[in-house]
Design goal:
Layout lengths: L10 E2 L15 E2 L3 E7 L12 H8 L3 E7 L12 E2 L9 E2 L1 H12 L8 E10 L2 H8 L3 E6 L7 H7 L2 E4 L9 H12 L9 H6 L17 E2 L2 E2 L9 H19 L1 H13 L1
Parallel strand pairs: 3-4, 3-8, 7-8, 7-9
Antiparallel strand pairs: 1-2, 5-6, 10-11
C-alpha cells in the first residue's frame, strides 16, 4: 500500500454548477495558501514555480495553484476576449464583460482575505513588504493582462489593486505573476525549511543583504574575509550588518534613506 500524500485529509469538496472545463483539476486543501491566476495562457503555469523548493512545496500541499482560462469566458463561437479601444488607438483591450464573468467565477468560494491584483506597469512596484502581507492572506487572485490592458471599469468596480514588477512594459502579466507568487510562497512556513533564511536576506530588515562566501577558502587569489573564519559570532554579525549598510548606501540610496527615516521615527 502506498504512503498517503501529505495533503491527505485536508480536501474540501464543494458542489459546483460550473462547466467541467472551468474547474480546477485539483481539489482545494483546507487552510492552505492558494494563488488563483486569470490568464489567456494557463499552460504557462506552474512554469518555474514547479521547480526547486516551490515545486516541492506545491507537490507537498504547502500551497496551491489554480489557473482560470480567460478564453473560456469569451464572447461568441470564437470566444473573443478583446475589442478595439474606445476613442481609437492601436492595439486591443480586454473586455469588461469577459473579465467580469471570469472574476466572479474566480472569486466564488474564496473565503477570508483574498487580495485581487492586476499585474500592470502603472501599479505600485513589488517589494518585500507586499510579499509578507500576501503570505499572511488566505490566498491571492491575480489578473494577467495582455494587449493594451483591461477595461478601466473592471478595475474600479472590483477595487482591483495594480502591482508592477518594475518600471518597464512586458507583453503580459504571466511572468510578473510568477515572480510575485515565488517571492510570496517562499515566506510560507515550511517551504524553505529554514526560517532564518527569510529573516536574514535582502529587504527583510530594510537593507540589502551582506556578501556571502563558501568553499574553497581561496579562489583565484581571493580569500574569504578573515572575520567569517574567526568563529566569533558577535564580530561576524557586526561585519554583516556593516556590509549590508555600506552596500545599501552605495547601491540603493532610496532604501537607505527609508531605513534612516524609520530609525528616526522609532
Amino acid at each position: 500500500m502506498s504512503a498517503q500524500n501529505k495533503s491527505h485529509g485536508r480536501k474540501a469538496i464543494r458542489p459546483s454548477f460550473k462547466p467541467r472545463e472551468l474547474m480546477t483539476p485539483t481539489p482545494d486543501l483546507v487552510g492552505v495558501w492558494k494563488a488563483k491566476i486569470m490568464t489567456l495562457f494557463p499552460n504557462a503555469f506552474p512554469g518555474i514555480l514547479g521547480e526547486s523548493l516551490t515545486g516541492k512545496a506545491l507537490q507537498d500541499g504547502l500551497w496551491q495553484l489554480e489557473t482560470v482560462d480567460l478564453r473560456q469566458f469569451g464572447i461568441g463561437k470564437h470566444r473573443n476576449v478583446d475589442d478595439t479601444p474606445a476613442g481609437g488607438g492601436a492595439g486591443m483591450v480586454l473586455r469588461a464583460d469577459v473579465l467580469g464573468d471570469a472574476i466572479e467565477h474566480t472569486m466564488a468560494g474564496a473565503v477570508g482575505n483574498w487580495p485581487l491584483i492586476y499585474l500592470s506597469p502603472r501599479g505600485r512596484r513589488m517589494d518585500q513588504a507586499l510579499m509578507q502581507d500576501l503570505a499572511r492572506c488566505n490566498g491571492v487572485i491575480l489578473l494577467c493582462g495582455r494587449f493594451e490592458g483591461v477595461d478601466e471599469r473592471v478595475l474600479q468596480h472590483y477595487g482591483i489593486q495594480e502591482v508592477s514588477l518594475g518600471d518597464f512594459v512586458m507583453t503580459g502579466g504571466e511572468i510578473a505573476a510568477q515572480a510575485m507568487i515565488d517571492a510570496t510562497v517562499r515566506l510560507i512556513p515550511g517551504v524553505l525549511g529554514n526560517h532564518a533564511s527569510t529573516e536574514e536576506e535582502s529587504f527583510s530588515s530594510g537593507l540589502l543583504e551582506h556578501p556571502q562566501y563558501t568553499r574553497p577558502a581561496e579562489w583565484k587569489g581571493q580569500s574569504i574575509p578573515d572575520v567569517l573564519m574567526s568563529g566569533h559570532h558577535g564580530k561576524i554579525a557586526e561585519w554583516r550588518q556593516k556590509m549590508s549598510e555600506d552596500i545599501t548606501k552605495a547601491r540603493r540610496p532610496d532604501l537607505w534613506q527609508a531605513h534612516q527615516d524609520r530609525k528616526t521615527s522609532d
